[in-house]
What we know:
The complex is a heterodimer of chains A (179) and B (188).
Chain A: H1 4-14, H2 27-36, H3 40-49, H4 54-64, H5 68-72, H6 82-85, H7 95-112, H8 117-143, H9 148-171, H10 173-177
Helix pairs in contact in A: 3-4, 4-7, 4-9, 7-9, 8-9
Chain B: H1 20-27, H2 31-53, H3 56-73, H4 83-99, H5 103-106, H6 130-135, H7 139-150, H8 155-162, H9 166-184
Amino acid sequence: MDGPKHENLDARLARLPQEVAVPRNLWPGIARAIERRPRRARTFAIAASLSACAVGALLWAALHGWDWKGAADPGAAHPVSASARGASFDEPRDTAYLAARTDVERSFRDRLAVLDPRTRDTIQASLAEIRRTHEELRRELVAQPSNAVLEHLLESTLNDEFDLYDSVVQGTQPSMNRS
Amino acid sequence: MGPVHLRPAAEAIEPEVEPLAVIAAAAEGNVTAFEHLYARFSPAVYGLCLRLTGHPPTAEDCTQETFVAAWRALDRFERRSLFSTWLQRIAIHMVLARRRGLRVRFEVAEPPAGMPDVADPGAGAPPIDLERAIATLPEGARHVLVLVCIYGFSHGEAAQALGVAEGTCKAQLHRARKLLSAALGLEE
């Protein structure tokens, strides 16, 4: 299989440069994304300062696995252990969190209803893709629980989902106020 | 289309030396330091994403997502590997994470525009450019060929990165070589 022909081809492939100039400067987009999605430690401060914002608080709760009942009682056990979740990060599953999540999703659906069908379909397709990716990553993390990259990607998909909710809610605010 | 630039003109850091102080500063939250890392490593990340996806706009998206992910995980980077290797792994995960949803866009029937205009020093007059021939390979074969033949992964490393069996990796490479040889008009 590895005859002279392949050696020749391999040599040509190996001579290709590993680096390719990026056609445009991606840094501004990266800088914006970094600003919007700070590291976990700073997510706490930002979300805490925006406690009136349901989406922000819910995202914070998800990222920190916060048990809202347990927060009032520091001795209370977390409802889902890290080992049961299969990764160090996953969404909380306690009743308070799920109820809050349901509220956020309800607001999202209400606002989605005011959009034109084509836009609505696009958003719903995006949401389905985000959720599918999230589930794939979650399953993969069960097999590779110490994979920090997968863990980060899982967290990112949750960020994406809440960003989508937030964008729709914020973006439809003016049209809902119009009479 | 211009020639491939190996690295940004403003970059003064030695290519083979990892800028450890800059990495440490970025890990501490210094955005300016991280911007330096972007300037230093984005051509390598983009090159890998471009070869894996065969689709320049998607490669740009994956590159951007790779750096955002790297920023968020950098405080947990333990230097058990080179920073550049760590970035490569994130980039591969990013490409694979997008693979299913963008499969139609990835499977190009014609050589896509925007592939690097690389002179092929090993051929007199190849029927089509080597880079473009790589971009037209089926996805699985292309991924293995890119990682093993261009980026120097072993079969084991490529199999692990792509989430496939090592035997599958070898079979895909054989297929890729065969298709590429045919596309380039190399002798059997």
